[in-house]
Amino acid sequence: VQLQASGGGSVQAGGSLRLSCAASGRAFSSGIMGWFRQAPGNEREFVAATSWSDSTYYTDSVKGRFTISRDNAKNTVYLQMNSLKPDDTGVYYCASDLVRRGTRWNNPLNRWGQGTLVTVSS
Questions:
Q1: Do residues 85 and 13 touch, judged by C-beta distance below 8 A?
Q2: Strand pairing partners for 62?
Q3: Residues 6+ apart with CB under 8 A from 34
Q4: Strands 99-101 and 104-106, how do they pair?
Q5: Could you please report the per-residue DSSP string of 31-71?
Q6: Which pLDDT score, from 0 to 100, does residue 27 have?
Q7: What does the pLDDT profile of the chain (122 residues) look like in tens digits?
């Protein structure tokens, strides 16, 4: 599976961005797709995920502001980000075949997109 992320950019606080992640190589409809982000000096952290049945999961800090969705026909997952804050700044990575262990999300097959930079200024 190859993942191609796009849609990052620079916005002011309160603005919106939409990230896209196109998957190729196999049908991705059966796996959990998601987004992680990594701010400078920080570890990569889970942001959101969506299952084949359209169940969605979010880290607390983005609930009510971010929406994850997927289009299985297009092999694409999206992350709509509204009311952006400076703390949302970072490189956003899409990932496939995620597994949840308790409250922690893992990427056991290490399938990552190339990352797209989101910068939110105050």
A1: yes
A2: none
A3: 46, 47, 48, 49, 50, 57, 68, 77, 94, 95, 98, 105
A4: antiparallel
A5: S-EEEEEE-TTS--EEEEEE-TT--EEE-GGGTTTEEEEEE
A6: 59
A7: 789 999 999 999 999 999 999 988 765 667 899 999 999 999 999 999 999 888 999 999 999 999 999 988 888 999 999 999 999 999 999 999 999 999 899 999 989 999 999 999 99
pLDDT of residue 53: 85
Which residue type occupies 95?
Answer: A
- CB-CB neighbours of 30 under 10 Å: 10
Task: Indicate the length of the chain as a whole number.
Answer: 122
Amino acid in the structure at residue 76: T
* Burial zone of 108 (CB within 10 Å; 0-12 exposed, 13-18 middle, 19+ buried): exposed
- Rg (C-alpha) for the chain, rounded Å, is 13
